[in-house]
Amino acid sequence: MLTDWDYREVQWFDALEQIWQEVNFLDADSVVRDHEDALTTQLDLPMTGMDASHSRFFKHHYLSNWLKV
User: Fold this and answer.
1) What is the pLDDT of residue 68?
2) What gap in Å lies between CA 51 and CA 53, rounded to an integer?
3) Using CA atoms, how far apart are residues 39 and 42, in angstroms rounded to an integer?
4) What is the pLDDT of residues 6-58, one digit of tens each?
5) Which candidate, 66, 33, 38, places its Cα nearest to that of 51?
6) Residues 6+ apart with CB under 8 A from 42
7) Nearest to 32 by CA among 18, 22, 45
8) How many other C-beta atoms can be found within 10 angstroms of the C-beta atom of residue 8?
9) pTM to 2 decimals?
């Protein structure tokens, strides 16, 4: 939503291989950092950058609220 990329391309399985080759080299952390401000301001999505340990901590405690038996 932040670029002119046509998101509908992913519905064509033949295009998925090419899309994967184009984005496979990208570092997800750097992509999020590069787009964090735009996601926050243009889409009103609050973003919080987390390293692997912070992410693991969040997922553990977030899921624990939903997985109570």
Assistant:
1) 64
2) 6
3) 6
4) 777 777 777 777 777 777 666 767 777 777 788 788 888 777 777 889 988 98
5) 33
6) 1, 2
7) 45
8) 8
9) 0.39
In 3D space, the residue among 59, 36, 67, 66 whose CA is nearest the CA of residue 49 turns out to be: 36
Query: Dihedrals φ, ψ of 38, to 5°?
Result: -65, -40
Torsion (CA) 55, 56, 62, 63 in degrees, nearest 10: 140
State residue 26's pLDDT score.
66
Q: Which residues are CB-contacts of 60 (< 8 A; sequence separation ≥ 6)?
A: none
Q: Measured between alpha carbons, how far is residue 56 from residues 30, 33, 42, 49, 63 in Å?
A: 18, 19, 28, 13, 11
CA pair distance 48, 38, nearest whole angstrom: 13
